[in-house]
Amino acid sequence: MTRQRALLYIHAAAVLFGLTGVFGELIQASAAVITAGRAIFAVLSLGVFARIQRRSMLGVLTPAQIFVLVIAGALLAGHWVTFFISVKVGGIAIATLGFASFPAFITLFEGLVFREKVRAAEWAVLALVTLGLVLVTPSFDFADQGTVGLLWGLASGLSFALLALTNRRAAAGMDAMQVAGWQNAIVALIVLPFAVGQLPALGAMDWLWIALLGVFCTGLSHYLFVSSLTKLNARSAGLVIALEPVYAIGFAWVLFAQEPTGRMLAGAALIVAAIVWSGLRKPAH
């Protein structure tokens, strides 16, 4: 693994993350069905990637670790379900920009809940993301589908922030591939009861899109992301992943003619700039 290959891997992962909303738009099924199918195919593909890297997915876990994985799996299920509802209601760009709010939620939780010292620059990032979301909001009317879609996107960002904090604080020391495999398995177990009755109605193309979503946008993207971290630090990787909303908006524009307004583009620019600025700052010691 060279640095150039690691950069290629992390950019490919960002593109695959950006494609998630595209598959959510293509699949003619509920958010529960998409989430359950994605998780099942992700577990299968992660198992293959683990074998390629000669890593075990079935290591011995303590009861405390199992408890953490169950909580994290539930948060991941909530994140995916709310994200795909946002895609269905508000469109790909709105959903992705709502999800992109998660760094702001992390800052809030670290400052207000965990009582960690939050510097002025971090509050500035939060303010920029908030202003960006105000610009992205189509209207402040709950009868507007775009606004409702953004609220679901914000719920997706909130649940992902809680997931990130859970993994950061409680899953430390565990193998990243193993964590991803277990969490996806838990997502499948949680969501499948709500989706199983709808599975027979899925068409062949829907199954294909779900398989591609699970294998490429989940399993492969996670494999590329984890592999890139052997040569890149988390900050460098985070800066590239911050481009996900840009890719998502581009895909939605080209593939589905979901043309963003000037106001939405301005809001997107503010959100991406805030995430990039956050990544460029030196961490506090």
UniProtKB/TrEMBL annotation:
GO cellular component: membrane
InterPro entries hit by this protein: EamA_dom (IPR000620), EmrE-like (IPR037185)
Regions that span the bilayer: 34-52, 64-85, 91-113, 120-140, 146-167, 179-201, 207-225, 237-256, 262-280
Coiled-coil segments on the chain, per record: none
KW Membrane (keyword) present: yes
Name of the protein: EamA family transporter
Organism: Bordetella genomosp. 5
A Pfam cross-reference name: EamA
Keywords recorded for this protein, A-Z: Membrane, Transmembrane, Transmembrane helix
Domain named EamA: residues: 6-136, 148-277
